[in-house]
Write a structure and sequence with these properties.
The chain folds into two domains: about 160 residues, Electron Transport, Fmn-binding Protein, Chain A (Pnp Oxidase, Chain A); about 70 residues, Alpha-Beta Barrel (Split barrel-like). Helices cover about 35% and strands about 30% of the residues. The strands form two sheets. Strands 1, 2, 3, 4, 5, 6, 7 and 8 form an eight-stranded antiparallel sheet that branches. It has a three-stranded antiparallel sheet with strand order 9-10-11. Helix 6 packs parallel to helix 7. It is globular, with a radius of gyration of 24 Å.
């Protein structure tokens, strides 16, 4: 269309119009396929953003249903993740939110990174929706305590248990117009053998800590390290296939970001 208009606009008319208009600004409206492709790209981008937010969170706001009144109840929990990216927490059965989870396993967790932004509404946050269950695996315990070492003081108390969240969906916001609801699997890190990876992580972590003592854990997609009381997530250029290659990728990323 615009090529035809340009052809018709000849002589002085074309010269005058050309001074006022930038033809490159006039583009055809995107087709339905292009719109779908754009939404798909944004979903993939925000899935990666959400993964980083969840992986780097030290705490979250847990929303449960009150066991007596069925009213919403929000509380703060300490936060970690499994090698696959499932949220972990350590809570006491004496706490109100734990009693609520035993009555109704469904819950939501808000992870908010907007406190670092000037405008809170422009910051990133993700609401995780799913269910909680107790997790007695040694790997989950080790990963949580690696991120929250002071919790070792009470982790073995009889009333405390580790809980894992199984994410069913995630509502991700990263500023105006960048909002999407994703299935839980979009935030999960694919690992062929999660048990083997988790079993191999401690030895790899010990090796990394010889040079970077504040590393808290690694997985096939990145490495987590404490920097000035904040957790920093370093993403790998591409996912690793196993714990050995993940440790090597972690060393490369750490050497580039935090020269020893």
């Amino acid at each position: 269309m615009w090529a035809h208009v340009q052809t018709l606009a000849t002589g002085r008319v074309a010269e005058n119009i050309g001074k006022r208009l930038d033809w490159k600004r006039f583009q055809p409206m995107p087709t339905s396929v292009e719109k779908t492709q754009g939404l798909h790209k944004m979903s993939n981008d925000l899935a990666n953003v959400a993964k980083c937010m969840v992986r780097s969170a030290l705490k979250g706001a847990l929303a449960t249903l009150d066991a007596h009144s069925d009213a919403p109840y929000a509380s703060m929990i300490l936060f970690a993740t499994t090698v696959e990216g499932c949220p972990l927490t350590l809570i006491s059965k004496l706490a109100r939110h734990t009693r609520n989870l035993h009555a109704t396993a469904a819950a939501s967790v808000l992870v908010d990174t907007s406190n670092a932004a000037g405008d809170a509404n422009s910051g990133g946050r993700v609401s995780l929706i799913g269910t909680f269950s107790e997790d007695a695996s040694p790997s989950s315990r080790a990963r949580f305590l690696s991120r929250h070492p002071s919790a070792a003081e009470y982790a073995d108390f009889a009333d405390f248990s580790f809980f894992r969240m199984h994410i069913e969906s995630a509502h991700v916001i990263e500023g105006f117009g960048r909002i999407v609801t994703l299935p839980g699997l979009a935030l999960k890190t694919n690992i062929t053998d999660p048990t083997a990876f988790a079993d191999a992580e401690p030895s790899g972590l010990a090796e990394l800590r010889r040079y970077w003592p504040t590393v808290t854990g690694f997985d096939p997609e990145g490495v987590d390290v404490m920097v000035d009381a904040s957790l920093r997530r370093l993403q790998f250029p591409s996912p690793a296939t196993d714990a050995v290659t993940a440790r090597a990728a972690a060393a490369i990323c750490l050497a580039a970001a935090m020269p020893s």
